[in-house]
Amino acid sequence: MEVLVPFSTDRPKSRLSDVLSPSERESFARSMLADVLRAVIDAGGSPHLLTTADLDVPIEADTSADSPHPADGPNPADASPSADVPVTVDARPLTTAVNAALDRHEPTGAEPVGVVMADLALATPETLGRLFGADADVAIAPGRGGGTNALVVRDPAFRVDYHGASYLDHLRIAEEIDASVAVVDSHRLATDVDERSDLAELLIHGDGEATAWLRDAGVGLDATNGRVGVDRDR
Amino acid sequence: MEVLVPFSTDRPKSRLSDVLSPSERESFARSMLADVLRAVIDAGGSPHLLTTADLDVPIEADTSADSPHPADGPNPADASPSADVPVTVDARPLTTAVNAALDRHEPTGAEPVGVVMADLALATPETLGRLFGADADVAIAPGRGGGTNALVVRDPAFRVDYHGASYLDHLRIAEEIDASVAVVDSHRLATDVDERSDLAELLIHGDGEATAWLRDAGVGLDATNGRVGVDRDR
To answer: How far apart are the first and last CA of chain B?
Structure first.
């Protein structure tokens, strides 16, 4: 399955500005992207990066799940097999760019197209497998706060609309074209990493590159309030 | 399966004080409890309420999933079958009370004991079914922020510790007694309704009594910021 992974190079993760500097946010976003690409590949998908501008470094998805390494740490050249990921640059807004890609691909039951956000650093092959294997014209993994974190489209008439409560919009759009819908109930896929509190989820549940990056940056759990949050020791 | 549902009558849902008055929070908490009891029963469990003090009204779980009604709205006497739910009053802290109940029940593989929090208003028979059916000595549904929202225990040596990042503590406790662990990845079970932003999840995904209660109270979705939140029109 072709799986689009949209990635914005324009001030990524700005809502993490109270914890990470601009260059750190860029590096952290890249480490999450690497985790997502790896999970998509390990779930049997073929990731296709949809980026708003050329990335300065070629994207490789380390397919060795048992040897995560920090983005800025050592990455031995002989450590593991890597897979080149095709890249399409489209500077238009997310909705326009994804719909253009759906236009190009014309998804069907035989050739579905996935859309998985680049900040789902808790995605695992198992959770993505539940999404990829869901038997419906449109399978949706809702994000916390009404977003749409991951999709599989098997109907060429379906179009996305990522503005606002996109999960509800996508249910409505599917209904309008008479497409069947499966909703994938997953905390991992519901956790797009946007805000400070989301970092706690990574530190609690993650074991990939982005989690290692956070630990390396001194970000740790802080259990002084009701829900566990994060603190930074430097 | 015996399923303990702990419920605190002492200032329930105080973190919702910016949206709901004290008496409203009490009524809302009761409507969430009703949803949880119904979901447990519909998932094949036998709920047992573990409350900090006597409740003024007897607890009944409406087992008719297709006729939710607001807690303060009309409830026709002939609407649906109801099930009386046994109640144990234990004023001690949550961890102590649950461990005392586990002591009494001595959970085993043949007679497991569940613990499901009373504010999991998005729990459905399907998601609870995944938890109840998980093949492990301890099955855990983690909550957002490191909590433990639901558990199934099949090992009499297991004890809970709800303080702090209890999910991580429960993994450690299970490891110490050599108990196998299954983690249930569910956004619905990860969503304990404690804070304002959690209400948005109910309005987006819920269809039970608590969601109807919120709508009736004028709480609605507010999509003006990044993630969809809630607003109140009166």
So the answer is: 42
